[in-house]
Structures are given as C-alpha cells and as structure tokens.
Amino acid sequence: MRVLDPAFAAHLQGGITTLATCWRIARRDGVVHGFTDHDRALHFIETEFRPESGAKGSALRASADLGVDNSEIEGLLSSISADDLNAGRYDGAAVELYRVNWAAPSQHVLLKAGTIGEVTRVGAQFRAEIRGLSHQLDQPTGRLYQRLCDVNLGSDKCGISPAFVSAAVTSLRNSQNFSASSLDHYDDGWFSHGLIKWLSGANAGLAAHVKNQAGAGAISLWLPAGGPIKLGDAFEIQAGCDKRFATCREKFSNSVNFRGFPMMPGNDVAISYPLRSENNDGGKRS
C-alpha cells in the first residue's frame, strides 16, 4: 500500500488535478536521465525531468500474483544517444516511474521501479521495455549440478582475480576481430573466455567478452563491439577461464575452489544397463 503525502492526497481527491508522468533512468555507469510527458521541465528528487524527449509510456499492468508486470517507454532520440543505445549503455539501467503534480512537483508518488530490458529503434524513435522487479523471480538461482564451474573468474567464491593487462589495438579486421600490442608473449588461448574493459575510443567504459586469443595478439570477440573500434583504442584484458576443472587446476592452481562436479556421470552412464556375467555352473546371470 502506497502512503501519499497529505497535500498530494488532497489534490487527488479534488475535482481538478494537474498530473504528469515522469521517468527516471539511471545507467549502471552513473549517468541519470529524467523524462516527462508534461510540456515543461519538472524538478524533484534532485533530478530534472525534461519534456523535449517526447517520451510517453504504455498503460501500467499489475497483478496480485507473482506474474511479471512489464510496461514500456518510448520517445524521440533527443536526449538518449542512438550510439549509447546500440552500445548497450542502457542495458539493465534502473527505471523509476512517478506520478507527479506538475503544479507542485514536491507532491509525487513512485508508481513502479524496474530495469530496462529489450530496447528497439525505429528511425529517430526508441522503445524500451521496463521489466518489473518480479522479473528477477524468473532468473535461475542457486548452484547448478554440472561438470563446469558455476561461478565467474574473479568472484568471491572463485577466489582468483588475475590482474588486467594493458594493451591497444594495432590492426583491425572488423568489429569482432583485431590484433593488439603487449600480448605477443602470452600463450595462445590465455585470454580466451576473458574480459576486455575499453579505456578509450567509442567503447570507453564498456566491457566485452573474448571468444578466442591466438598468437601475435589476435583477439576475437563473442559479439561485435557496441561502437566502432579504431586503431590505438586502449583497453585492459583479463585472463580467461573455460570453467573446466583441468583449467582451474593447471592454469590457476585453484582446484580447491572449483565449483563444478567434474566426476558427474555422463549420458553414457544414464543410458547404460547391467552387464550379464557367467556363474560358476556355466549359467548366466544378470
């Protein structure tokens, strides 16, 4: 149950209301944007909600059960950069939806909080799905019974955090394949399944996952970089782990913290059947 400010509650009970909707988007890198469907800027909770975005939202859907409640926000790409959308800078951003008395913005109420899900573009417009907090209940939690380790390299449960190595792009084939300096003396595959943090260029502040690393510093990414990669772009790269027990033991000497089940029986055991053997009198038994 929402508790309303007495003045705001009195305003809602009056015959005439002056209401607007506001959205506050906080990216994971700390950048905050405010949008409103009102025709002038509004200020509250230390945020400026601007009208020039042309933002509007779909009808709110809510349920009393644990079903996922989603809505959408759409608008023009005036305040949100198309390049930032393509680069994934808004993926997982926190969203707060407010109803506010535009004549007295201090009178407002939080209607919904969630995160940005799928984002699409059509020309100069964007549409972002807002996933409610109940969406997190659909995510798998707990340990997985599998041969591979179920934690990421560098996490607390892993206990190993290899240092990042500084490098820069020296040659470029496409948005997923390039060569870099300072990596020549590392073994092939040392950085495969590793992590890149871009320090300069169009992707500065973003991270990328390494698919493969071979001799002469050749690097392949799992997905194209969000922005164009150019010669000289600086980044840091961390050694990778394919989550196998042999890798944990031989590459990182960390078998004591391995979180998989390497001795788990495979499919051949699941579909096998008891073998028949001969008894002493020459008969056969199962």
From TrEMBL:
Residues 189-268 form the Bacteriophage phiJL001 Gp84 C-terminal domain. It comes from Hyphococcus lacteus. InterPro entries: Phage_phiJL001_Gp84 (IPR011928), Phage_phiJL001_Gp84_C (IPR018964). This is DUF2163 domain-containing protein. Transmembrane segments: none annotated. NCBIfam families: phg_TIGR02218.
